[in-house]
Design a protein that fits this description.
Layout: H1 2-13, H2 23-34, H3 39-44, H4 48-51, E1 52-54, E2 62-64, H5 67-70, H6 87-90, H7 98-118, H8 129-133, H9 136-139, H10 141-146, H11 151-175
């Protein structure tokens, strides 16, 4: 589910969500956009000591090492956002009608909410595949309920139908007996 979230974000952004030339850079972006990793994850991590240090006076608390503490010069890849919520600001909706703009804005909010669930740092709270299939972005139920006459909704439904039709065709092809 984590990988699916990273791929979805990259398709949306046009670049990697956690860019970097090393693990440290990627961890910097994760901490910057989503906050500190869960203590349990860090306490059980095999390489935690490489990237994090224990806070003095706090037995089980960790903080990401500075580049200097990490021990080498690290290229800082510029991030265009400081939290996943900032993704909502990258592509503001702008349509001729207010209803279309509201529909696209709602869809973007649903997308960012879905990303947060897919990329939850605590694996125990991360979205499961069955939860994904019921998510409002996937079912489009929020858009259908709030903007039933929207051209934006209609376009999205048409795209989903094309995907469904192609999925059924490929499934049918896989089920046909093969002549040998």
């Amino acid at each position: 589910m984590w990988s699916l979230g990273c791929i979805a974000a990259e398709l949306f952004l046009g670049y990697a969500l956690y860019p970097g030339d090393c693990e440290y850079n990627m961890l910097q972006h994760m901490v910057q956009t989503q906050g500190q990793l869960p203590k349990e994850l860090l306490n059980n991590g095999l390489k935690t000591w490489c990237f994090f240090r224990r806070l003095k006076g706090r037995r089980r608390s960790w903080t990401l090492k500075t580049p200097f503490e990490y021990g080498r010069t690290v290229m800082r890849n510029e991030s265009y956002f400081n939290s996943l919520n900032d993704l909502k600001k990258l592509r503001p909706a702008c349509h001729r009608s207010n209803e279309e703009t509201r529909a696209e804005t709602k869809d973007l909010e649903s997308f960012v909410d879905l990303l947060k669930k897919l990329l939850h740092l605590d694996v125990g709270q991360r979205m499961t595949p069955s939860q994904l299939l019921r998510d409002p972005l996937i079912t489009m139920c929020d858009l259908a309920n709030n903007y039933p006459n929207s051209a934006y909704l209609k376009s999205g439904c048409e795209m989903m139908e094309v995907c469904w039709d192609q999925s059924v065709i490929h499934h049918d092809m896989d089920q046909q007996p093969r002549v040998t």
